[in-house]
Structures are given as C-alpha cells and as structure tokens.
Amino acid sequence: MARRLTALASIVVLALAAPAMAQEEEVYERIETIQGDADGFFELFSILQDAAMFGDPTTIAQYASYPLLVNANGESYDILEEQDLLDNFDSLVTPETMQALLEQDVGDLTVTDEGVGIGNGAIWISNICLDDACSDTEWGILSINN
Description:
6-stranded mixed β-sheet, 6 strands
C-alpha cells in the first residue's frame, strides 16, 4: 500500500511539473532563436539571482553593459562605468527590483529581439555583439527599470 501511495505521489508531482518544464523549454528555445546562446543567458541569470540572494552589488555591476541605462527615482541615468553603479547602487536599484530578480520564474521571462526581461522589465539582459560580424557575443545587463 505504501509503495502504491509513493508511486501515485510521484506521478502527481510529475504531472504538475510537466507544464512548468514545457514553459521553461519554450523560453529556452525563444532565447536561442531570437538572441542566441541560451546557455550563456541561463549562466548569467543564475549568477545574477545568486547576487540578489546574497546582496552582492559588485557582481551585478560586473555584468552590466556600460553605459547602462537606469530608470530610478522618476529620472533616467546613464551610468558610465561599474564604479558609478557601485557608488550609487542603493539609490539606483530598489529592493523591489532585486526581489523581482530573485523570484523570477524562467517560464515567465519576457523574450524579445531587444533582450530578455526579468521582473516584468525591471531588468533587461541582452546578448551583446562584441565584433562587427557578431560572431563574438556576451550576455550583459542593458537596463534597470525600477
């Protein structure tokens, strides 16, 4: 009897998880098709979520693409370099934005030709071309919108 209940519980868990896994696979495919290098995105996404969890603005600043557009306090700022973001992090990046990053479900990411939106657009990440042919790219934060 216990084995049957365990088996039944496993089937229920898999049935409930299947739609979420399908959504995540769809998002992965959209990123791969539209931006390219989905694996690179998910690597950066994981790093940024860890940074949000541990309150690590240095890591977030390291992965920004400068000049970085930050909308905060009802104004727009062009942050020119990493140290500028670090020096003003607490006033430029709200706790709500960090929480949105931390709680983002993969299946709910916004994927467009402009990038991948986290937290309903609170943070935009894009696969940035590093050469004219766009054969060398890297993922980076394009904007933060509090």
